[in-house]
Each structure stands twice: as C-alpha cells, then as structure tokens.
Design brief:
about 45% helix; alpha+beta; 10 helices; Creatine Kinase, Chain A, domain 2; about 300 residues; two-stranded parallel sheet
Length: about 300
C-alpha cells in the first residue's frame, strides 16, 4: 500500500470514528445544569502486597460495598484501586452550587481513609509521588494491567513508577452538547499547564518517560469545531500502540470500532474525553491533602461555569 493510500485510509477512519464518538456523546443525553465530578487517588504509605489488598477488599465488603467490574459500590459511593494499591474515590455527579453534597463526599473520603487505617494499618496519603515503587508488586493482575505493565517496561523508563507510585485528582465536566466540547476542550488544554492545575515536576517527569504514544496531548485543531477536535484525538489514538498486539492500532487490519473504544481507555492524555459517561476529564492535578482540595475544586468549577457568560 502506498503512503498516500495509507494516509487516505487513516484520514477516512479518523473522520468516521470521530463522527461515531460525537454521536455516542449526544446519545448520553447529559442535560443542563451541567454536573461535575472528580476521581481522587491516595497512595499507601508503604508498599502493599496481595494480603493487604485482600484485607482491603474484605473490609469494603463488610461495610456493604459490592464489587463489580473493578468498582466497589454502595449506593452512590464508589471506590476503585490502582495497580500499586492506590485507592481511588469516585464522586457522584455534582452540580456547581451543590456545596452540601460536595462536603458530604469529602467527609465520606476522610471517614473511609480513617477506617482503613484503624482496621488494616494502611495509611493513605494525598501526595503526587512516592519513590521506590518501580519494582513493587503489581497488585491488580488482570490481563489489561499485566499487558500495560509489560508495555511500560519496554516503552520507556518510568511507566512502572506511574502505575504504582503516583496519584492524581481527575476533574471532569459533563458534555451536554457538541458546543460544550468546542468550548471546554481548549479551556482544559490551557489550564492543564497552568500553575494551579499542572502536574508537579516529579510527576511530569514520570509521565514524559512512560509511553509517548499514549500520554501528553494530541495535536488538535481547536479552531474548526467539535468534529475537528475529535478527529485530532482519534488520529492520536490510532497511532498509539495497542497492548495485545504490540502494534500501532492503525496497522491492525482486523480491528473494528468496538476494539477502538476499548483501546481508547488505555490512553492517558492530560485531557481526555470519557465516552462512557460523555465527560471531559482534566487529568493533570496532583493528589494532595484533602483539606487543600476545596479551593482547587472551586476554581475548576468557576472556570467551567464562566464559559456560559461568554456565549
């Protein structure tokens, strides 16, 4: 196949997949007033082992949480874990003005961290990075994580540190229309490098040496509308190495759109569109002590809400 023909095929695939992704976002039917949310990770104060993970799972089960597809749920309370034993608290959808529910969510997180320390002796810390965990055991050993770890051992030098030694706060906003993507994607890209929301130097250094084909930011034309933005994202994802085959996704002949959606979840760009929930995610903020989070949350929501006044 000539390079020209190959490029035409990639461009055609990018356009088709971009349209499908936009259709999925619209079908989610997120409505105004827009909701926001966060995923808050904490690092364990020591290297954990499988016995520790078993005790954590047993504690959550005893507290009434039910495990399904990697998520421990109890009503709208949801908890997940990362391969190094990091705990991740997933907030419910929050309206911009719902300070009561926001504070209740922070109280739940604080209470759970305290309960875990009392019952298991594991203390969870809000911090960006703890060194010395490159060779720590991989505590989540699903096929996905095992392949990811194998890839990161080869792709560069810091991937295992990213998987097992870092923690972040992901902030997200619901996409209620195509216009939301046009307005909010440039905003998220801008604030990802701002002093308030960017990664710490140590965490950024790890990300830069994890896997360049799935980290960073795609080259996207921000001036030509939602479809152009989505096409730029799709092209970036097509260039990324697929974990099972070890090939760039665009070079795998028998893959389809469903395979692409699965591959999309292995991309860790600073700003990411979450197709499942039709949200836009800012993934750069570092984990931090819980008492420091309300100020960051307020600034994030204010920046998103300010876009309305510019319409």
């Amino acid at each position: 196949m000539s390079s020209g023909t190959s490029r035409e095929r990639i461009d055609s695939t990018s356009a088709a997949y971009a349209e499908k992704l936009l259709d999925i976002i619209l079908a989610r039917e997120n409505s105004l007033p827009r909701t926001y949310g966060f995923e808050y990770e904490f690092l364990p104060d020591r290297i954990l082992n499988q016995d520790d993970i078993s005790r954590l799972f047993a504690l959550l089960s005893g507290e009434g949480y039910r495990l399904d597809k990697g998520i421990h749920s109890k009503g709208d309370r949801r908890i997940a874990f990362e391969p190094g034993g990091q705990i991740e608290y997933l907030s419910p959808p929050l309206k911009a003005s719902d300070n009561i529910k926001f504070n209740e969510t922070l109280d739940w997180i604080q209470d759970m961290n305290e309960l875990i320390e009392v019952e298991t002796g594991i203390r969870y810390i809000g911090t960006d990075y703890i060194s010395g965990r490159y060779a720590a055991p991989l505590l989540l050993t699903s096929e996905r994580y095992s392949r990811m770890h194998e890839r990161f051992m080869k792709a560069n030098t810091r991937g295992p540190d990213m998987m097992k030694g870092t923690a972040a706060v992901h902030l997200h906003a619901a996409l209620t229309s195509i216009e939301d993507l046009e307005e909010m994607y440039p905003l998220f890209c801008e604030i990802a490098s701002s002093e308030e929301f960017r990664m710490s130097g140590s965490r950024r250094e790890i990300w830069n040496r994890t896997d360049g084909c799935r980290c960073g930011l795609p080259e996207v034309d921000l001036s030509s509308g939602a479809l152009s933005i989505m096409e730029g994202i799709v092209k970036f994802v097509l260039e990324a190495v697929e974990l099972q085959s070890g090939k760039r996704f665009r070079n795998i002949e028998d893959k389809n759109f469903a395979d692409f959606l699965d591959h999309l979840t292995t991309i860790f760009t600073d700003v990411r569109v979450n197709i499942k929930f039709a949200t836009l995610e800012l993934r750069t903020p570092d984990s931090r002590p819980l008492e420091e989070f309300p100020d960051l949350w307020r600034k994030f929501v204010e920046k998103c809400e300010s876009l309305k006044s510019q319409v």
